[in-house]
Amino acid sequence: MVPNGFQHIIGLGNFPCDWLISSADEITEKITKGTTPPKSEIVEDSNIPFLRVNNLGFDGVLNSKSEMLFVTKQAHNGFLSRSVAYPNDILMNIVGPPLGKIAILDDQYPEYNMNQAVLIYRCKEKLIDNGYFLSFLGSELAQQWLQSRSKKTSGQQNLTIQLCKELPTPVPPLPEQRKIAQVLSTWDRAIATTEKLIDASKQQKKALMQQLLTGKKRLIDPETGKAFEGEWAYVQAGSIFATRSNKKHNSDLPILAITQDQGAVPRELIDYNVSVTQGSIAGYKVVEIGDFIISLRSFQGGIEYSKYKGICSPAYVILYPKIEISDDFYKYHLKSFSFIQAMKSRLEGIRDGKIISYKYFSEIKLPQPSLKEQQKIASVLTTADKEIELLEAKLAHFKQEKKALMQQLLTGKRRVNIAEIKVATEETLEAEVA
């Protein structure tokens, strides 16, 4: 049932009756896509970026961490002239998965170009606000409409130019569009600021790990009030860790997924669905809390740690400490860049898809500071991790709040107050609504 004062748009939902509903084609000056030029037209010294899907993100701006290619001015003004783009043009990828990457072009460059997987929207300024249309285009409303109509072939998703032109777009009065864009951009700034803080915290932690886990920086011993002293012992890993291959279980323990970012975790916690037979599970190894696991990817991401008791594939090598150690110290060390590089150097030639055996691991030299220093180092790094986790929780909250607000503002369920426009701050991230 459509509420009073609302109109229903098939495939999109209910919108206020005083809003126009236009196709994207009606509110834009241009909708087109790019072309891929010959490799000879890709250069390093041009002032014309050639954008691809990897240059777009889900946050409405170009991905600054992605590799940027450039195209010759001759190609740009020649056979690529159809897809010349300018600052304030809006881009969206039309080849996926994933679909839904969008970006508004800034004025870092006067002109841009792109390949055939990227679409350009150029808005009619008198009809549609760029910021508002960018928000709508990246919303679940627009993306569900587009993606439900995409062509799916051989694992790809494709949007046609015609479909992108037909996208039904709710068009409030321009002042209301601008206010909606202003409110949402405030959340975008808070999200961007938090993401930068997370990146900076991760870089600081990385530098801290490099210093602390190699002994280049020594922490204060709380008992003496002075820095820890003495050279670290470096011993073979086999003198610290032993291996076990316990298969005595009733298949009633959780199956653990061995991941590079979360360590060993129950599969159901990360939606990791791989079918296994009861017969194969019988041969799985028991993993105890505090065990370390060598995987096929340990050459890339180090050795994983388990906070869970469970079972894992017999392909993995299970390690456990044979002497008293700080689990957290070695959890960090065995994932550190310096350890991974040392392991690669020591085991050169045996890592072509083969797992590192306990024998090879046992011969690698590991640092062995005093237990007190291990614990102090682990404490500092754990604190750094907790700070990152708090920032990531804050970021998730901002994104969820923005998503909920978008759903309300872009459908007119909540109307912004045009009479008195106030810019929300990061501390008061609530839209002023009538």
Walk me through this protein's architecture:
This protein is of the alpha+beta class and 434 residues long. It has three domains: 22-171, DNA methylase specificity domains (Adenine-n6-DNA-methyltransferase TaqI, Chain A, domain 2); 172-232 and 370-434, Orthogonal Bundle (Helix Hairpins); 236-368, Alpha-Beta Complex (Adenine-n6-DNA-methyltransferase TaqI, Chain A, domain 2), CATH 3.90.220. The chain has helices spanning 73-77, 130-137, 140-147, 161-166, 174-212, 278-281, 298-301, 327-333, 337-346, 358-362, 371-409, and strands at 6-9, 13-16, 20-23, 28-33, 42-43, 49-51, 69-71, 90-93, 95-96, 102-104, 113-114, 118-123, 151-153, 156-158, 168-171, 220-221, 226-227, 233-236, 241-244, 256-259, 263-266, 285-287, 292-294, 304-305, 310-312, 317-321, 365-368. A hairpin with a 2-residue loop joins β13 and β14. The model is unreliable at 420-434 (pLDDT under 50).
Summarize the entry for a quick read.
GO terms for molecular function: DNA binding; endonuclease activity. This protein is α+β, with helices and mostly antiparallel strands and 434 residues long.
Largest sheet: 4 strands, antiparallel
Report the span from N to C terminus: 24 Å
CATH superfamily of the largest domain: DNA methylase specificity domains
* Shape assignment: elongated
Could you please say which CATH topology of the largest domain applies here?
Adenine-n6-DNA-methyltransferase TaqI, Chain A, domain 2
Strand composition percent: 15-25%
Structural class: alpha+beta
- The number of distinct helices, counting runs of at least 4 residues, comes to 11
CATH architecture of the largest domain: Alpha-Beta Complex
Family: Belongs to the type-I restriction system S methylase family.
InterPro entries: Restrct_endonuc_typeI_TRD (IPR000055), Restrct_endonuc_typeI_TRD_sf (IPR044946), Type-I_RS_S_subunit (IPR052021)
GO biological process, one term: DNA restriction-modification system
Keywords: Coiled coil, DNA-binding, Endonuclease, Hydrolase, Nuclease, Restriction system
